Structure formats: C-alpha cells, structure tokens
C-alpha cells in the first residue's frame, strides 16, 4: 500500500514481518461480521477511557482481567461475552494460540480526532491481538536507537487483524494516529505467566 512515510510497511499476510513479532492479516472479518461487531460495541455501554486523572477521547469497555491505572493492579471484570467469544477463538486459531489463553478483551470506539499515544501494553499481558473495524488507521512503532529512534508503520485496514508478540510486543512502543472518521477496535490479550487478577480492597471515593 503506498504511503508517504518512507518507513516500510508490513505485508497483509502472516509472513516476512518488518519487525519480528508484528504480523497482520487483512481479511479476518467479512462485511456482515464487521457490521454486527460495530452494533454490539455500540450497545456495550462504553465509557471514556481514564488514565489516572486524565480522560481520553476514546470510549472503552473491558472484559476479563483488566489493568486498573489507578491502583496498578489487575482487577476481575465480566468475562468475555458470548457474542465476542467466537471471534476471539478464531483470532487465537489464526495466531496459533490456545483459545483459552485469550482471557481479556477491550472494546474501543474512536471518534474523529481520537487516537492513542506512545505506549507498550502492560507487563501483566503477553500476546496482543487487535481487530480493526470502521475507518482505517495508522499504527506507528518506534524503538530507541542511540540518540534517535527506529520507526515503522502499519496500516490498519478495516476488517483486518494484527498481532504483537516477542520483540514487537516488548521492545517497541506503538501508538495510533488520530483518526479522521469513526473507528472501532477490539483488543484481545493473554495474561503473562501466572498473573492472577485480585480485587483491590482500597476504598475509593
């Protein structure tokens, strides 16, 4: 896919990734499945994403063990719902992971202008799989290289899937550029090692 950024982009299939551990698959969903998932996400009582005292532009809802940015712990949440589980199972199959390993899901709605800043997923999680719905978006990746950065980009096409593992998961940061049109995403994660969610006993206001 042509792109003005001189950094190379990844192919549309699980082969020859530019970054070890970052792979993509362009045709994970068909259009009817995409529409059904978008309807289900809109019906899922999304709320603004919160990081400590900051509120983001995107709307989210988590299922399964979820990282609490206020306490720094994994908290239990409602399990991955029945309507989402078949897609999580199919994603696990494509990525060569046990279906039961996908224990956490995050629904996201990006309204125009919303994106995600530079970050790595929390160490409590291991494999990260993303499903893209609605408008396309650009994932940017960077890694320290002396005084500068190595940079790559991946175009997130509607109905596609990407996976972060290994080097791409642990050594590279990623971000999502602000979108021009409404976009939806589902992030599926496995837990790292023997991580067990524990409900905080702290009293919150």
TrEMBL record:
List residues of the Fe2OG dioxygenase domain: 101-192
The molecular function terms of the Gene Ontology recorded here are: demethylase activity; oxidoreductase activity
Q: Entry's InterPro entries?
A: AlkB-like, AlkB-like_sf, ALKBH4, Oxoglu/Fe-dep_dioxygenase_dom
Question: Gene3D superfamilies in the record, alphabetically?
Answer: Alpha-ketoglutarate-dependent dioxygenase AlkB-like
A Gene Ontology BP annotation from the UniProt entry: demethylation
What name appears for this protein in its UniProt entry? Answer: Fe2OG dioxygenase domain-containing protein
Organism of derivation:
Sphingomonas sanxanigenens DSM 19645 = NX02
């Amino acid at each position: 896919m042509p792109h003005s950024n001189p950094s190379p982009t990844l192919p549309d299939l699980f082969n020859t990734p530019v970054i070890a551990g970052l792979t993509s698959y362009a045709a994970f969903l068909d259009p009817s499945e995409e529409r059904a998932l978008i309807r289900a996400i809109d019906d899922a009582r999304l709320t603004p994403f919160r990081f400590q005292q900051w509120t983001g532009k995107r709307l989210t809802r988590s299922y399964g063990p979820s990282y609490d940015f206020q306490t720094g712990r994994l908290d239990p949440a409602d399990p991955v719902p029945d309507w989402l589980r078949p897609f999580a199972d199919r994603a696990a199959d494509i990525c060569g992971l046990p279906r039961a390993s996908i224990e956490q899901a995050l629904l996201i709605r990006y309204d125009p202008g919303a994106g995600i800043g530079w970050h790595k997923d929390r160490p409590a999680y291991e494999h990260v799989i993303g499903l893209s719905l609605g408008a396309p978006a650009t994932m940017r990746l960077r890694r320290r290289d002396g005084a500068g950065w190595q940079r790559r980009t991946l175009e997130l096409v509607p109905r596609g899937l990407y996976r972060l593992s290994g080097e791409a998961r642990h050594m590279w940061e990623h971000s999502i550029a602000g979108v021009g049109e409404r976009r939806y995403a589902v992030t599926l994660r496995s837990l790292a090692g023997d991580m067990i969610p524990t409900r905080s006993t702290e009293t919150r206001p």
